[in-house]
User: Fold this.
Amino acid sequence: MILRKAFVTLLVCFAALGTRTAHAYQFPEFVEPYFDMVDETFDKESAFNTVAFVEKYWRVVGNEGFDKSIYHVVEKLKSAGFVEESAAGSSDRLVYRIEKRPLKNPTWEPVSGILKLGSGDEILNFETNFNMMAMHSYSTGGEKEFEVVYVGEGRNLDLNQDLTGKVVYGETSVNLLFNEAVKKKGAVGVIGYRLPGYLKPDKNVNSIQFTGIPRDDKKKSFGILLSHQANKKLKAAIERGENKIRVNLETKIWESEELTLVAELRGSKNPEERFVFSAHVQEPGANDNASGVGALAEVAASSARLLKAGKINPERTITYLFGDEIVSTRRFIQEDKERAKNIKWGMSLDMVGENTSLTGGTFLIEKMPDPGSIWVRGVEKHSEWGGRPLTKKQLKPHYFNDLTINVFQAIGKKKNWTVKFNPYEGGSDHVPFLRGNIPGVLLWHFTDQFYHTDGDRIDKVSAETLGNVGTGALVIALMLTENKEELGDYLLDDLNSTLNARLADELKLSEASLANGGDKTKEVDILSTWADYYMDVLETTSDIVPKSGDKFSKKLEITKKQLEVVKARMLKKLD
Ligand SMILES: [Zn+2]
Assistant:
């Protein structure tokens, strides 16, 4: 027995070494069956195909590309068994509805665009630069020749200069140029060049980051955005004394309506309680955010397959929201107070398909505000997207942070996939949840060197990444909505090991800081805040209404007592 056992262990070690332990990784007992089931079901190629469909369109709420993307997802849901809500019976658990609302502002769609020098040399074409036209630009009504006036960085725009009928070109935002030159000085249009360093413009010389000019149906003007390469060409022409350009833009602007797709897997026992996923449809990018749409559509379809196979029975409802970023999520929370009361968790899928070998960056979980967003030190690091230190008042203690991180890190170990997290920054659909006092996290990637640029196309998307993110998202939703007996135990054990590890790390950092002459009051404050934060986090575990009733509350009390001891011991160490 022993020999055989020793031989088997040896085999496992070699295998582990070979695959850097990927396959040998042991999931927490409670998570493993969920992972195996979802990993087997989740069809990453199908998710990728949805991304490939959606990314073809320059999506703005109300436009053709946005609507086609919504209807494409509806077809996928229907074939997975979702029924239109108004036609659904009470026994139907898979339903969807498309909500339609008139749009306050007209929608916009780019059709074609060419920018040439006076000499006829083409320097930009919509076919190769999807983002060359600023949103809300009007058509030029065919090719038009204009005098171009270069204003450098546009800071000290000489307002005495007559700009009527001219195009103003500056190395700054088209928004600024528009407000100065078009609104105030009668220019017909603007050309702008400004790209943040993390997009590596001198390497990605054709990248253009999308942005818009103000809507102005009186001026009916336009904005053209330059790539690094196009900027060089135009500037060189200006320096040669060539101040004529030819512009031919075609766009569509029309009154339209907003579509929001709300699909649900209705809970069997507490259908009013919800886990809400949200993926925004608008914006022109493949990773931002056709990837979220593709991953979430497959999360929904996978849940349907598992339900139909009788492998899952969520007691709570899972909602899959596809719409206009922030707007549709906020409305889903605000328009029905009763419903909002029972939204227990929110998860935003935004930029979830990066092939990081091309885009750079890593998969990130953006946490709800914890003390790591007040004192950004140790493992905490803001992304290049940017974040500022928060205050204690903004803390949002909840177990959803660590639950999400730990499940994804487990998947990362299993799949040899890098999983990191960042302190709260904002800027996606997790924000309306937090504003509604609902636990909300963001799944994304950063730094993506093609972020919001026309380099963000299908070649930068990885089916593998979509699979990993989608699998993790569905595993977490099922763990919380199925509400199995063991959930409470798992949550407390998982939290207990996480908080002890974190407090130990923070203590080391504080001791190191004191050793370097750091301020003791501050270090005591940091450690106390972390310990108090976790005490509050432990409190939130009761929101899963654990089936193990007394057993759970006893365990919770013990865990809290242990934390008090750890806190006291830590602070003592600083003396
Ligand atoms: Zn996005």
